[in-house]
Fold Small ribosomal subunit protein eS1.
Amino acid sequence: MSERSVSKQKRGKRWYTLIAPEQFDRQEIGSTMADEPEKVYGRTVEVTLGELTGDQGANNTKLTFKVNDVSSDAAYTEFVQHELTRDYLRSLVRRGASKVAANITILTTDDYRVQVQPVAFTTKKADRSQEQAIRRVMIDLVEEAAEERTFAELVDSIVEGRLSSAIYGEAKTIYPLRRVEVQKLSLEARPEEVAAEEEAAVDVDEEDIAVEEA
């Protein structure tokens, strides 16, 4: 493409400042270019927790935001994912020790469906029953957290490390632990999407009943 073509293409576009959600203090987290506001919707941006907090020690945590509203020169985002970097997770693995992970799908009090993946690292090799007991603690505490918190509150609990600390405190009584982390948190469905799925499921059930009666 010629320089003239590139220049002409950019002239029809404008920059939009990407804004984090209110729970992250509406911080600027980047910018994106588009020729129409509608094309900005759905775009994602990834930043580290360290970039948001100024704490370089938090750069091993990646946060992903998705644009869900656009104004004249700003694009507002929602939080969609928290994930630890692979290098950081790899650094926690020790030979002769156990890594215990779980994958839990939960519904928050405001009907957001979320997938949470906690992981625990033991000091030495745990046996199978101990690993199962640790995993049970993870599942129970994650489910309890969802029953008591909104989506925003759950995100705060995970980003600030409170949920992983709670798991560590209880699971260490089963077997000595070196570290507990939530390696990933993903937004799977918003309240309106969950409601639509439930309504569709009810419709299917009613059809099944009608068929059986016939």
About this structure: Helices lie at 3-11, 49-53, 86-92, 128-148, 151-159, 162-171, 191-213. The longest helix spans residues 191-213. The beta strands are 14-19, 28-34, 44-48, 61-70, 74-84, 99-101, 104-107, 113-122, 177-189.
